[in-house]
Amino acid sequence: MNLRYKLFDHLKNEPFRIPHDQESADHQIALKITSMLPHTANQPIVIFCIGTDRSTGDCLGPLIGTKITEKRLSHFHVYGTLDEPIHAVNLQEKIEEIKMKYANPFIIGIDACLGRLKNVGAITIGDGPIKPGAGVNKELTPIGDMHITGIVNVSGFMEFFVLQNTRLSLVMKIANTIASGICKAEFQFLRKVELGNVEKDRFSL
Fold it and tell me: How many CA atoms lie within 13 A of 8 on its CB side?
């Protein structure tokens, strides 16, 4: 959780953190996500939202999955919603399902997490897999080529109880910011691919 916040961080492997209520946070999130995505539209992109609707603190992932599913994105494939959450019981099953359905998918893992008091409400984006269940001392399969987390409450003591008693208002606000950032990222990504193809066609003439 000791990631240093850098607003204009565009380096792919550098961690990124931004308060959910900062002005244009969704735009900065979209820029960061787009900078980390593959440079081709041929590789499937899967949004893997982890969590359960039975816990206010742990429902961040399913909330985000539901919000972006409702937007009917054309290129990003979404797993994990309020109706069909991904949690400890079915996590491995969903991972296998994605491997069977998509060839070499690029997976964005999304989950809630706990952190320092001063960082509560922040959104973190980083390279590499997310480690679901780490906040409540569960050993689950890491998943993702990159990850997005929302810090929903304070860590360090009775984490399960803390998640259960997290304010839904904060979780909803973080979910709104991340979902908006993902939707903008898809638009930016498709535009980037389109422009890249135009450049290729221009030089091939």
Answer: 0
